[in-house]
C-alpha cells in the first residue's frame, strides 16, 4: 500500500478534481427523484456511471438496488462496504433552483441524492487508485430507506453482505445542523428504533346534541392519547430515551355529528430492544382497556420498523481519527443521540458499522432548512468532502 500521507493527498486531489462532476450528478438526481422502491431511473443512472468509471461487476439486488465491487491489490486480503440510499420523499419542493424536482410531489428532501452522488464519487476515486491500496470495497446502493420494511433489510436478505463478506460497513448522511466543511461522529448508541402505530377507536356515532345516546370515539381517543404518554413518563427508565408521538387523527364527523370511529396514527422510538417489546404490550393493553371501559373498542396495530443504530465503538473511534487526519481536528465534531431512525441500523446489527454525519449548512447562503422539509438544500462544497472522506475511510479501514 502507498504510504498513508501520500495516499491521503492523492485522494484529496482527486476529490477536488471531480467535485464539479459530482455536483452535476447530484443535480440530475435531485431533478429526477423517485419514491421508495420505485428508483428505476435512478438505478439505471447509477449503473451507467459505475460502468463509465470502469466498474463492471455491477449486480441488481432488492428490486432497484445495486451492488458492485472494486478490487485493489491483493483483493481477498480484506473487504469493507460503503453504502448509499437512493429514494426520495413525497414532498413538493419549494426551492427555486435550476435543479428543482421535475417530478411533482416528489423531492430529495433527505439528501439521498447527495449520498448517492458522493458514493459514485468515492467509487471513482477508489477505482482510479486501486493500484495504491490492498483489499476490496463493496458498494451498496440501496432502495427504500424511507419506507418499511427498509431497503437495507431487503439487501441483507438477498445476500448483499456475502461473497465477499465485509468486515465492516460505513455510511454517511447529510446534517443541516452542522456547517459545511465539518463532519460529526458518535460512538455506541446513536439512532432510535422506529415503529409505526395504527389505531382505530370504535364507538357509536350520532347527533352532537345527544351525547347520552352515543359512545363518543373522539372522547375515547383523546383519553387514549393522553394516557399513552404515561408509557414513556412512568414506565420507561428515565435514562433510556423514548419518544411516543401521534401525528395523524381522523374523526370524520362535523360540528354537530359524532362519528362512529376515529383513526389515529403515530410513531414510537427508543434505544433498547427489550423495552421496545415491553412498551408495545403496555400500549395495547392500556388503549384497549380505556376504550372498553368507556363503552367502545380499540383495534391497535404496531408495525415493527427499524432497530436502533449502533456505531461500533472501535471502528467509529478510528473513523473519527481518520476524519481528523483528513479534515483537521477543528472540522470533526462529537454529536449526540438522534431519535430519528435509519435503516442503516440493519447493517449495524450484522457487523461493525460506522454511520457519520456530513455537514451541509451555510447560513450566509440561507441554506438552513431541516431534512424532510420542502426547502431543504445543501451547500455543495460538502460534496467534495463527502466523496473524498468516504474513499479515505475505505482505504484506512482496509489497512487496519
Extract low-pLDDT stretches.
Answer: none
Can you list the strand order of the major beta sheet? Answer: 1-2-4-3-5-16-6-15
Classified in CATH, the superfamily of the largest domain is Zn peptidases
Order of helices and strands: HHEEEHEHEEEEEHEEEHEEHEHEH
Tally of discrete structural domains: 2
- If you compute it from the alpha carbons, what radius of gyration comes out, rounded to the nearest whole angstrom? 24 Å
Structural notes for this entry:
The chain is of the alpha/beta class. It has 2 domains: about 5-190 and about 310-400, Zn peptidases (Aminopeptidase, 3-Layer(aba) Sandwich); about 195-305, Alpha-Beta Plaits (2-Layer Sandwich). The protein has 9 helices and 16 strands. The chain has helices spanning about 5-30, 40-55, 110-130, 150-155, 215-235, 275-295, 315-325, 345-350, 380-400, and strands at about 60, 65-70, 80-85, 135-140, 170-180, 185, 190, 195-200, 205, 240-250, 255-260, 260-270, 295-305, 310, 330-335, 355-360. Strands 1-2-4-3-5-16-6-15 form an 8-stranded mixed sheet, with helices on both faces. It is elongated. The mean pLDDT is about 95.
Amino acid at each position: 500500500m502507498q504510504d498513508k500521507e501520500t495516499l491521503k493527498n492523492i485522494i484529496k486531489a482527486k476529490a477536488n478534481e471531480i467535485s464539479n462532476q459530482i455536483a452535476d450528478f447530484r443535480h440530475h438526481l435531485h431533478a429526477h427523484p423517485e419514491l421508495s422502491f420505485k428508483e428505476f431511473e435512478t438505478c439505471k443512472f447509477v449503473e451507467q456511471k459505475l460502468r463509465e468509471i470502469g466498474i463492471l461487476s455491477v449486480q441488481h439486488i432488492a428490486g432497484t438496488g445495486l451492488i458492485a465491487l472494486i478490487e485493489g491489490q491483493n483483493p481477498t486480503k480484506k473487504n469493507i462496504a460503503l453504502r448509499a440510499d437512493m429514494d426520495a420523499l413525497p414532498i413538493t419542493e419549494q426551492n427555486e433552483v435550476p435543479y428543482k424536482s421535475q417530478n411533482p410531489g416528489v423531492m430529495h428532501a433527505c439528501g439521498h441524492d447527495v449520498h448517492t452522488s458522493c458514493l459514485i464519487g468515492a467509487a471513482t476515486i477508489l477505482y482510479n487508485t486501486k493500484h495504491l491500496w490492498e483489499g476490496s470495497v463493496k458498494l451498496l446502493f440501496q432502495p427504500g430507506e424511507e419506507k418499511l420494511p427498509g431497503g437495507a433489510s431487503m439487501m441483507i436478505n438477498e445476500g448483499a453482505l456475502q461473497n465477499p463478506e465485509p468486515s465492516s460497513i460505513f455510511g454517511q448522511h447529510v446534517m443541516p445542523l452542522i456547517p459545511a466543511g465539518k463532519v460529526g461522529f458518535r460512538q455506541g448508541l446513536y439512532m432510535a428504533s422506529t415503529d409505526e402505530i395504527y389505531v382505530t377507536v370504535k364507538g357509536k356515532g350520532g347527533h352532537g346534541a345527544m351525547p347520552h345516546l352515543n359512545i363518543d370515539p373522539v372522547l375515547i381517543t383523546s383519553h387514549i392519547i393522553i394516557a399513552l404518554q404515561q408509557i414513556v413518563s412512568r414506565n420507561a427508565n428515565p435514562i433510556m430515551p423514548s419518544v411516543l408521538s401521534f401525528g395523524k387523527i381522523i374523526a370524520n364527523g362535523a360540528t354537530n355529528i359524532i362519528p362512529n370511529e376515529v383513526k389515529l396514527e403515530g410513531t414510537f422510538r427508543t434505544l433498547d430492544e427489550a423495552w421496545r417489546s415491553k412498551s408495545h404490550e403496555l400500549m395495547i393493553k392500556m388503549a384497549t382497556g380505556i376504550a372498553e371501559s368507556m363503552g367502545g373498542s380499540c383495534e391497535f396495530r404496531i408495525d415493527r420498523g427499524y432497530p436502533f443504530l449502533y456505531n461500533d465503538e472501535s471502528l467509529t473511534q478510528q473513523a473519527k481519527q481518520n476524519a481528523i487526519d483528513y479534515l483537521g481536528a477543528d472540522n470533526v465534531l462529537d454529536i449526540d443521540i438522534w431519535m430519528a431512525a435509519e435503516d442503516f441500523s440493519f447493517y449495524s446489527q450484522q457487523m461493525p458499522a460506522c454511520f457519520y454525519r456530513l455537514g451541509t449548512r451555510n447560513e450566509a447562503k440561507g441554506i438552513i432548512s431541516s431534512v424532510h422539509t420542502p426547502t431543504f438544500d445543501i451547500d455543495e462544497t460538502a460534496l467534495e468532502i463527502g466523496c473524498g472522506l468516504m474513499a479515505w475511510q475505505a482505504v484506512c479501514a482496509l489497512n487496519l
